[in-house]
Every structure is written in C-alpha cells, then in structure tokens.
C-alpha cells in the first residue's frame, strides 16, 4: 500500500505546479472586472475534483458566483466528511508593494520558510489550503485508501460575505448532509507548534457617511462657521473607544462571553513571544483593551476598527476646502453570543445619536456573521488531534482565532454538524496583504495530515 509520505515525495513537483496554475487566475470576487476569471477558476476546480476521484461534480449556479460541488459516496453506512473552501481571493492592491506580481506565482525562501514559499494572492487564503484537500482526496482514491464518504463544497464569494452560499446551504440540507465539516482556511501557531482553531470571531461591517453643507466650501470663507464633516466624523469615531480602549456603544458588551480564570490560564499556555510579535510588525509596543493580553485582545474580545476613511482633497499639493461629505468603513469583530444583527443595530442607533447638529449621518450595513466556538471533545476534534500527532509528532494546541468565516456558524445551525478547522497557514503569511505566501512545508504537511483525519474520524465513528 502506498504511504502518503512516499506519494507526496513522488508527486511534489506536480502538486506545486498544479497549485501555481490555479493561482495564476485572478479570481477576485470583489471586483466585477474579474468576473470571467472567477468563473474560469470554478471550472478549473471542477476539473481538479473530477481528476481527484469525485464521482459527480457540478457547478451550481447562484445569484452570484457558482459553488463547485463534488462527491464520492462509497457506502451509505460510513460517515461523510464535508470539505468547505473558497476559490475567490482578495483584491491584491496596493500593487506597488508586491515584490513579484500577485498573479505570477514564484517560490522563494524566507526565514520562516527555509523550504520555500509560494508567493501569490490566494496562495494561503484559500486556494493553497483548499487544494491540499483536493490532493489528499487524489491520494486516497488513487491508492484505494478512502475510508468514508466525501463531499466538497468550494465557493467563490467567501471574501465578499458568502450570502449566496447561505441560501444554497438552506436549500440543500439533504444534499449536504454530513457527519463533520472540514475546513482549512485558518492558521497554526508555528511550523513546529501545530494547532487546531477552536473559535472564530463574528463580524459586523458597516459604512458611515456624514453630510454637512450641500457643496464643498472655501475653507476660509466658511471655515469655523459650519460643521466640517471630516472633523466631525473623526471626532465621532474617536469617541467610540474610551481611555481603556473599551468600546463605548451602549449594550455592546452585554452578551460577550466571559471566560473563566482557568480558561484564560489555559489560553496563556500557548507559546507566544511579545518581543517577536513586535519585531515582526516593526512596532515599539502593542495597543489594546486594558486588562487583556495580546492573544486575548485578538481572540476572545470584541473590537471596533476603521478599515478606511476618506473625504475632501487628497491630491497633490493643497486645496483649501471644507468637504460636503466624509465617509468611513468600520468593522466590528464579535465574540460568541454577540449577535451581529443586533450589534449592527446598536452601532447604528448610537452613531446617529452622537452626531452633532449641523450634520446628518447615514449608516449602511454591509455584511456580517456570527462567531463560532467548538469543543475539544468532539469526535472530529479528537480525529484531527490524532492526525496532527502522527504528522508533527506533537499534540496540537486548541487556539481561538481572531479572524472570521461567518458561514461556519450557519453550517452548525442548518446542517447540525461540527466544523473542524485544520489551518496550516502562519499569521506572517500576509493574507489580504501584499506578498501573500504559503509555505511549501505547510502545503505538503496539510496534504499529509488530511488523509489521517479521514482515517481516524472513520475509526472513531464506529
Ligand atoms: N480565511 C479568512 C479568515 C481567517 C484567516 C480566519 C485566518 C482565521 C485565521 C477568510 O477568508 C477571511 O478573510 N474572512 C474575512 C471575513 C469575510 C466575511 C470577508 C475576515 O476575517 O475578514
Ligand atoms: Mn479564507
Ligand atoms: Mn480572506
């Protein structure tokens, strides 16, 4: 029987080349100029699932980009693993900060990736991690080692909120029926510190618009006498945090899950160096809510951040002007039990209430989703833990992540099954940033670990 390690050794170059071909297609879901490329990527995924041994693969159309669905059912009495991933990517801008073009993948060595890393938009988030599952499937089917049933659901709108996937899931409960959902779209602590993500934050994303006078004004003739929307907006935003960096929106913390001392002590055991963290980001200190550590601030505490702010004159030189309007895009990361629609409502009422006379305020909700936590005693978690134990020689550490995959809580609600988040990226892989990359070691380690998850999950389910 072919062993996964020798299979990887023999096929390593092909595994890399296939991923590189996939990364060349700019499947940017946010930008309609790339529509054909997004569609082309769905076709490429379909073909790869067929080649990997799925019995049926379909491109399921939605009101947005299609969902690629494939399956191989070997025995109705065996468990079924549903793999989810996304083939869309974030826009690559700012382009001038990339050391090589985002859709011309190259493999380069880095300090953390001595075996090389593939540099391209989507390398880690999520084409590279999603494709590990396709290659693991290929290994299992071609060597007659697939122990259970598999369903794949790969979508093209994760980076823009998964709203059509939510509809698809609600309408296809029977088709998607499964015993566990498996996703690789998160990270791990370090190359020699495997971890399984046990929590994701929720999200509420809004855009705000502050309007003052009916037209842009001369800042000398009118300055000081009318509200300047940019001054007002920045003051309003500044008031959303107090001196302890606590969010000031009334009711914001009402449903926040409070972790026990023991749980926080357990979390603090995960290896972490504040010095390395600061060095990696070139900052002289960290910043955040009083009373919490860095790891707590970005995992178990909710946050509010401005993602973009604009208005007025930003061109070359100086123009003396009071703009008629100012805008900002604001995201709130939420923790389990906070309801994103309720938080959006609380934000909206509060933001409207703090607007001074002389301006009007409009809040437009974008998208959102609930947070997620999963226990470490489920069959799926145990199977994943055993798989990592085999391939890394260490028990993986459960870790809550600060990122969001809003569809995960909907999976649990609609499909009634637990999601196991086996992420193989590093925080330093620059997802959503220029020079995104994914380690060759991580890619191959993922392909090696996934079949063991199937094996142990099937065994534990007996
Ligand atoms: N894969 C990421 C989320 C992620 C990354 C979670 C690393 C944990 C660790 C996903 O593609 C993503 O970027 N999600 C968005 C939310 C989405 C609604 C646009 C996010 O977290 O900003
Ligand atoms: Mn992702
Ligand atoms: Mn992403």
UniProtKB/TrEMBL annotation:
Annotated InterPro entries: Bact_exopeptidase_dim_dom (IPR036264), Cyt/Met_Dipeptidase (IPR051458), Peptidase_M20 (IPR002933), Peptidase_M20_dimer (IPR011650)
* Enzyme Commission number(s) of this protein: 3.4.13.-
The record ties this protein, via Gene3D superfamilies, to: 3.30.70.360, Zn peptidases
Q: Report domain Peptidase M20 dimerisation positions.
A: 199-358
Keywords, alphabetical = Dipeptidase, Hydrolase, Metal-binding, Protease
PANTHER family from the xrefs? Answer: BETA-ALA-HIS DIPEPTIDASE (PTHR43270), SUCCINYL-DIAMINOPIMELATE DESUCCINYLASE (PTHR43270:SF12)
Q: Give the protein's recorded name.
A: Dipeptidase
């Amino acid at each position: 029987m072919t062993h996964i390690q020798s299979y990887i050794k023999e096929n390593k170059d092909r595994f890399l080349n296939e991923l590189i071909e996939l990364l060349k297609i700019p499947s940017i879901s946010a930008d309609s100029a790339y529509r054909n490329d997004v569609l082309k990527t769905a076709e490429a995924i379909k073909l790869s699932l067929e080649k990997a041994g799925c019995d049926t693969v379909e491109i399921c159309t939605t009101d947005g980009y299609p969902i690629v669905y494939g399956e191989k059912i070997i025995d109705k009495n065996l468990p079924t693993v549903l793999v989810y991933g996304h083939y869309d990517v974030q826009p690559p801008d700012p382009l001038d900060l990339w050391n090589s073009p985002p859709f011309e993948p190259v493999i380069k060595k880095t300090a953390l990736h001595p075996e090389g890393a593939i540099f391209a938009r989507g390398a880690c988030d999520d084409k590279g991690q999603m494709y590990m599952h396709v290659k693991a499937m290929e290994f299992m089917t071609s060597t007659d080692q697939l122990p259970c049933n598999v369903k794949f659901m790969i979508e093209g709108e994760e980076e823009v909120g998964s709203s059509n996937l939510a509809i698809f899931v609600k309408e296809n409960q029977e088709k998607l029926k499964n015993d566990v959902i498996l996703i690789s779209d998160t990270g791990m602590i370090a190359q020699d510190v495997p971890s399984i993500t046990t929590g994701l934050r929720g999200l509420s994303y809004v855009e705000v618009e502050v309007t003052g006078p009916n037209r842009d004004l001369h800042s000398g003739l009118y300055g000081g006498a009318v509200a300047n929307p940019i001054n007002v907006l920045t003051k309003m935003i500044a008031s959303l945090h107090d001196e302890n960096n606590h969010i000031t929106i009334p009711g914001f913390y009402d449903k926040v899950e409070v972790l026990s001392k023991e749980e926080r002590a357990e979390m603090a055991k995960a290896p972490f160096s504040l010095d390395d963290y600061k060095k990696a980001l070139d900052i002289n200190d960290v910043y955040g809510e009083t009373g919490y550590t860095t790891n707590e601030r970005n995992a178990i505490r909710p946050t509010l951040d401005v993602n973009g702010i604009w208005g007025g004159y930003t061109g070359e030189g100086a123009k003396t002007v009071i703009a008629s309007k100012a805008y900002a895009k604001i995201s709130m990361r939420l923790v389990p039990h906070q309801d994103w629609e309720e938080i959006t409502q609380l934000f909206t009422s509060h933001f409207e209430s703090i607007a001074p006379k002389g301006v009007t305020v409009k809040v437009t909700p974008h998208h959102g989703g609930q947070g997620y936590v999963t226990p470490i005693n489920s069959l799926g978690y145990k199977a994943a833990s055993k798989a990592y134990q085999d391939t890394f020689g260490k028990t993986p550490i459960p870790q809550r992540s600060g990122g969001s995959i809003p569809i995960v809580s909907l999976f649990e609600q609609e499909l009634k099954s637990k999601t196991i988040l086996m992420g193989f990226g590093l925080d330093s892989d620059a997802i959503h940033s220029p020079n995104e990359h994914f380690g060759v070691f991580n890619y191959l380690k993922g392909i090696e670990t996934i079949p063991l998850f199937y094996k142990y999950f099937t065994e534990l389910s007996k």
